[in-house]
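Students often ask what a holo structure prediction actually looks like on paper. The answer is less mysterious than it sounds. You provide the chain, you provide the ligand, and the output is a string of discrete structure tokens encoding the 3D arrangement of the protein together with flavin-adenine dinucleotide.
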Amino acid sequence: MAALAFVEIDEGKVKKSSLEAVSYAHAVAGEVTAIVFGNVSDIEEIGKAGASKVLNVTDEKLATANIMAYSSAIAEAMNQEGSDLLVLAKSSLGDPVSARVSIKVDAALASNVADLPDTSSGYTVKKSIYTGKAFANTDLSGDKKIIIIKKNAIAIKEDGGAAEVVEFSPTINDADFTVTTTKVEKAEGDILLPEADLVVSGGRGLKGPENWGLIEDLAKTLGAATGCSKPVSDMDWRPHHEHVGQTGIKVSPSLYIAVGISGAIQHLAGVNSSKYILVINKDPEAPFFKAADYGVVGDAFDVLPKLTEAVKKAQG
Amino acid sequence: MKILVCITHVPDTTSRIAFTEGDTKFDKNGVQFIIGPYDDYALARAVELKEQSGGSITVLNVGEADTEPTIRKALAIGADDAIRINAFPTDGLFVAKQIAAVAKDGGYDLILMGRESIDFNGGQVHGMVGELLGIPSVSPVMTLDLEGSNAKISREIEGGKEYMELPLPFVAGCQEPIAEWKIPNMRGIMSARTKPLEVMDPTGDAPKTTVSKFELPPAKGEVKLIDPDNMDELVDLLKNDAKII
Ligand SMILES: Cc1cc2nc3c(=O)[nH]c(=O)nc-3n(C[C@H](O)[C@H](O)[C@H](O)COP(=O)(O)OP(=O)(O)OC[C@H]3O[C@@H](n4cnc5c(N)ncnc54)[C@H](O)[C@@H]3O)c2cc1C
Ligand SMILES: Cc1cc2nc3c(=O)[nH]c(=O)nc-3n(C[C@H](O)[C@H](O)[C@H](O)COP(=O)(O)OP(=O)(O)OC[C@H]3O[C@@H](n4cnc5c(N)ncnc54)[C@H](O)[C@@H]3O)c2cc1C
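The corresponding structure tokens follow.
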């Protein structure tokens, strides 16, 4: 197969989840071309993860993310490169873009793919469904395929070399520019929650936004992103993009630390693909302990500072 | 203003997920089905927009006859009429082709969906429908306001929000806080019984994906409890046992 990997950047740097997509493509297809929009400061990472060629789109008109124009450009790149496989990471941009590409190039599409495919007879993927509560082994038919991988499901291999970087200037269709982005609001310098390897999350047990310093101290010490439960974002203690669960962000970090969160089934739906879960709750009967690997029964206001200290001590 | 709202018929968020027939079928036993929570936001926003500027709301579901109670609930919440495409929704592409076939000549100003279904979690149908109809698609949409034949929306991105302006018609995948979920009142429930629900045959399009087998994740082991006064032990476990920090 010939694969194209759609690589996204954040603050000028390649997203880790996109490198997972490149590594998936490399494992499946061998030869991988990547497409990336904008100026990238660490473009060499794409080669290391397994791409041999990088199509870099630097057209000013495509500098801000544009769902329709990006999908046209990616479909054009697939046709130019003869790609029969498009691989990307699940994201707020990747989802709508790849949906449109699937129609343009007439491809079978599978989302939330949690592992490398079984290609012994056809192309079978393991998809995460029911918000992480089950998997569906799914057969894809047809000549072209689009695979959207779940975050932290595929290991980044760093066995690639230096990729050849080529400028790519896709056709600009005016019809793709009817949507105007007027403003982008983004927390800068923060670790993005869906990308994070470690997450510290707080619930109603924290009592109020003024106590979030305790969550942030632990997160900063660990290099973790911060998350919260739905009531916490509903009450505006924290921004909506930190809301984890069934109706919020689904995370799959190595470690999810839940503090003062009861563990309602809708919250668990967003965290059940975490490798390890640590629960800190003063109620030993809190349902979250049933989903946890490690637990501390105690008051968050007492446990959090002690845990932060212990981590600092271990870091030396 | 003509609004089309596409709804899924999905297991309640508290459902125990299980499979039957050699792990090839979803076990509906004891499961309560609801309007997808994100689709419910889309419907609630449609009702608000209709209250502001008039018009009509059609709900659409691709599903077999057992989805009709869910469709009636959407009528009770405030949709005017409904269409059910009589087919098992085998994959996102198949569903998108059905929706696009209805929308093509329907003259809808706005097509509202949920950001994703809560059973298959694809998050793709809105984009596919947008492309099939040659109109913009935006998702996940957090606010949506109309100004004549244009709309102002905000869309969630990782770590923030994007604000956009675009002309009607378009397709939007909705999520909170676009509107508050609406609970049907008695009058709504009564009138829903007699609102029109048209059943249509599917197009001949075939799906491109087929589920061969379902699997459940392995069960979690026992939790290991650590004394709150022994955080060094916890850090040691995370570092040397789990090797994650
Ligand atoms: C359709 C639907 C979708 C939903 N989607 C989501 C979703 O996406 N995400 C989500 O989170 N919720 C979601 N919910 C809500 C969910 O059901 C719960 O209500 C919510 O998760 C509870 O949040 P919480 O754990 O912070 O609060 P609570 O349930 O109030 O729990 C607070 C916890 O803090 C503990 N606590 C209190 N004080 C302390 C202390 N000093 N130290 C330590 N622990 C303490 C308590 O023992 C308790 O366990 C959804 C609900 C529905 C119906
Ligand atoms: C018992 C049962 C078993 C199912 N088995 C399968 C299966 O094996 N494989 C499979 O792919 N699907 C199956 N489905 C269908 C599934 O519910 C979806 O309709 C379909 O798969 C599209 O899912 P998605 O996650 O790609 O949609 P998404 O792209 O996540 O959906 C986005 C939005 O599109 C709209 N939409 C999606 N589906 C429909 C629909 N059917 N009617 C109207 N609007 C819709 C909604 O507004 C939704 O919020 C099953 C459904 C049921 C009830």
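Chain A has a mean pLDDT of 95.
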